[in-house]
Fold this protein.
Amino acid sequence: MPPSSALRFLGLSLLGGLLLASPGRTQPPSSSDAGDPAKALVGIWGGSRDYGPELQGALTLFRAPEGWRASIGGYSALGRVEKQTLTFTLPGGQGGFRGTLTADGKRILGHWLQPRALVGGVRYATPVELHALQKDVWRGNVTPLEDRFTLYLLIQEMPDGAIHAILRNPEKNLARQAAFRVSLKGHDVQLIETRPGGMRFNGTYDADAGKLTLNVLFLGEFELTRRDRDQAVGLYPRTPAEPVYTYRKPTADGDGWATASIAEVGMDEAPIRALVQGILDTQPGPTPTPVIEGLLIARHGKLVVEEYFHGQDSERPHDLRSASKTFAPVLVGAAIQQGAKLRPETLVSSLFPGTPTEDPRKARMTVEHLMTMTSGLACDDNDDSSPGNENTLQDQPSDWYAYTLNLPMAREPGGGQAVYCSAGINLLGGVLHQTTGTWLPELFERAVATPLQMRRHHINLTPDGDAYLGGGLYLRPRDALKLGQLYLSGGVWNGRRVIPRSWVERSTARHAQMSPGRTYGYAWWRHELKVGDRVYAEYEAGGNGGQYIMVVPELGLTVAFTGANYGQFALWKQFREDLLPRYILAAARP
């Protein structure tokens, strides 16, 4: 990030106050104010809209001689059983269920399939466990992923008298914290991004009702009302403000994490306090800033730092974006641990009869090539014209596996150069389905989530209803951090082996170079980080916006960041390049 942004983020006492923008007035100016009528809008405006899903809460399943019946939220549906799997779909596509009855008949283990989200446009599967109430009656609680959109405008008068607004959207980072010029003519409001060719929004202002309404893309009219500083949850790091940070040992909550204080694991508290204080001191302003929503640190297997910001908390699952790609090779390793007839050297074409192999290079493509992004397919997420680009893949109406398998070859599989390809990682889902015969959400629940004692998660689905392994898994940050600890512990979590030690070693070894200074394993990024005269090897799962699961074996450290700097790589890469070595590694005494 530019030096000024770094200073603002670190909250340095001298320059911080000069660089941080004023939060602006939260009440309209008096009638004596003259000049630009847009001054009437100065202050904090915010709004949040919940788009569902409508159905959640108690789900009851009944078994009768005439068949199965489901009831939830006033809806009912008939179920069917095929190959021991119970499924039902509610009228109007309001949701569905897929699960199995345990051998003792006491539980039904399954997934709730919620409708397509308006914000993001995909469907999710969420684990549900139902317990027997009496003979042939089971009940459990459905908690789908919330479909929410939040918008804040921080409207300020600039030194030259112009009225500017900073837009903040925690869920998708709409406009990427851009600055807008604000105009008000009568009731008509217009926001025009200060960057040439940028976005613009039109709306209306109702002074009597105290409402500002904007037309926001496909969401239509979006209503905002005035907020005080302590009502703007998500806009600022903490609500209410926490001027001085006090370290607190994390709480053990029965999810498998042992906890300890920083001192108990041989770490220096001062750098960690400085890091968190810098996050707390970061304010929305005219220059985009790092937006860190979660920071978790574990050392020697114990959770020692757990802090949340911008309205997040320990129980809210977070979108891991491409950091969840790393779970695809984890699933492969777990399937091998459980006896699947699969090896890294397995030819992909041998698992998919009918794969076009006119190009002999495709016939040589292996499972390992998919995991290391060296498949040779014409698939490059950084090239909009690439036929395998992730956006192009996701435009396909169905069968993303077949689409990927039919891509032309651009190079020989293997070699030392990786090319970033989400479609290839997702194709590992097809590999797993072909070799295990298991629906991927069920495989993830059985092979990863259950042994890692995960509490809540949501898996996004392809148009065909299977899990998309190219990114977008929602996990609680505490559960995401377990992935790093699993690998640091050689494939074991709390005494239970999940993947072979040899798989951990092979997964985190260098297989290819993605870019200068960045090598790649089985969907693990590999780096070397310098602290003073020491150099530490680090590997990580990383995702857009600042989603990181980091492992530093030499120091026994696992670190997780969650963030909302979507589309702002220059900001969120600093979580690793600056914050990790400067504060966290410096705090960990060898």
